[in-house]
Design goal:
Cbb3-type cytochrome c oxidase subunit 3; transmembrane helix; membrane; 54 residues; transmembrane; 2 helices
Length: 54
């Protein structure tokens, strides 16, 4: 294999792999079934009540 072929393959396969990874992340982030877990994570950094210091 020549350097040009390796560069072409790495650019092509790398782009396809990154786009696939991006799509998986977006699908998981906006999945309605994971909404409860996202809400719990968002609330976990907030103070629980007036007895905690803000």
């Amino acid at each position: 294999m020549t350097h040009d072929i390796l560069v072409y393959l790495s650019k092509t396969v790398g782009l396809i792999w990154l786009m696939g990874f991006f799509l998986i992340v977006v699908i998981r982030a906006y999945s309605p079934s994971r909404r409860e877990a996202h809400e719990a994570a968002a609330r976990s950094i907030l103070p629980r009540g007036p007895d905690r210091d803000a």
